[in-house]
Amino acid sequence: MLRRCGLVAASFVALTAISSCALGEGGEQPSQAAPSTENIDPALAVRNPKDLKGVTDACQLLTAGQRAALQVDGQPEQADSEYQEPSCDISGDALSTSIAINTNHGGMTAAHARESNFDNFEPTEVAGYPAVLVNFSDTLCTVAVGVSDTQSVDVFYAKNSGGTPEMDDACGYAKKIAAEVLENIPPA
Known about the structure:
The chain is of the alpha+beta class. The protein is about 25% helix and about 25% strand. The chain has one domain: Protein Transport Mog1p, Chain A.
């Protein structure tokens, strides 16, 4: 039990460090404003946009049924993210995850503009939406998914102990959680 608590604490410390890197030095908000729709890279445009502006509880982005299917067995706790917007932290035996809403500095054009702020950066896709994997390792991964041209949702995943072999693929499992989150974001 003590080992798991230490891993959970280390996971959330890593998330804080990742969040600070995503925003710039010292966790400050980026000096540039979110891109206007005129400055969106067409290659990163979202074809079926969703809208996070009305989501006030990020914990509602994973239903109890989805959490059970994903083996996310901890209690969801509301928090504020580095973006000063709703976030949800869930820590259980096998894994820890965090879901952060980003409507002020989001979108894939903005994420790509901050590429040099991350230890590693890999463009990808989640359920047909443009995304990037950032600051990933063998046991943790953050995936930022562009849900509209100017909004994104970040899903952090850290493997704690046990769980299924599928959970050993940190970015694969982060993407799986993110795909479930996308199902609960209202369309634009």
